Known about the structure:
By secondary structure, the protein is an alpha/beta fold. The chain is built from 14 helices and 13 strands. Helix 7 packs across helix 8 and helix 11 (283-292) runs antiparallel to helix 12 (296-310). It is globular.
Amino acid sequence: MVCSRLTGLAAVKHIFSIGHSTHSYEQFLRLLQDAGVTAIADVRTSPWSRYLPQFNQDTLRERLKDAGVAYVFLGKELGGRPSEQRLFCDGIADYEKMACSNGFQRGLERIEEGAHKFRLALMCAEQEPLDCHRCLLVGRQLLSRGFSVSHILSDGVIEDHKCTEDRLMAVTGQASHDLFITPAERLNLAYRARGRKVAYSEPETPKKCGSGMSKVLTIGFTQTTAGHFFERLRAAGVNKVIDVRLNTKSQLAGFAKGEDLAFFLKEITGIEYERQQLLTPTDAMLKDYRTGNKDWGVYQGRFLSLMAEREIEKRLAPETFDGACLLCSEKTQHYCHRRLVCEYLNDKWGGALAVRHL
Length: 358
């Protein structure tokens, strides 16, 4: 259930939340202004974005100041990545333990003070409130202090937290009535389950030695013959091709159409074929790059942020890529998202992939 746009919210005792996602600064500011926000409380643990520099702390603070919006960093107190080991459970940040910590309580007190002076919004990176601790942890605790909370969504709709909780109950399977569990207990279970799913988890120790790394290749199929394409894969010892194209029905090379390619790979080289949609850009993102601004830097930032939102490093493993070859259309890797996938995963996995571009 998604609520309609809210209006007339009082500044005192009301808190908004927003995720900067892959917005341009102008889009982000417009969302704030439409909601009447006059101050941002940044609850990111690390107040910078490698791929979206417009949201780096210093840059954002100055631009917001020019727009008449105050900025405060509260990532130390209210961030989603705790520094104390006791606040983890089985390697995952424990929101319930974090909520009881002295530092977190001090952060809430600062929010309460600020809410009396400003129309305040909590800011983090994730677009969806249910994917972020600003909603599941901070927003929930503010509710217990008597605040009303709402979330500014990417399309400008302002969703009341009660509606967000209805969606939470649905996605965690707690929406149905249960004779033996009260609604409050089901809501607690829903928060706990979602928190365990999206909270920060400690990375596994990365593989250090070269012999223990997963070897992955990448290849493009344009401006080459079918014979040369398949021979390069065979000579490189590839055991599986992972197709990361958004559109597998290519008109650029007949042999590269998805179903045909799977057949040719198996019959000619004995190589398996897999399509991996987790690693594709969105249709809107690709169209904007190819027919719109054609700014590789903007596209790169949006794509890497998309990979972060999908949390591909948690949903895939280095072993998945061992002996595999990522396939896309571009002849070289330089302006292709297949390279970005490898760089992103190596950054998250501590260099666990040995990458070679064919």
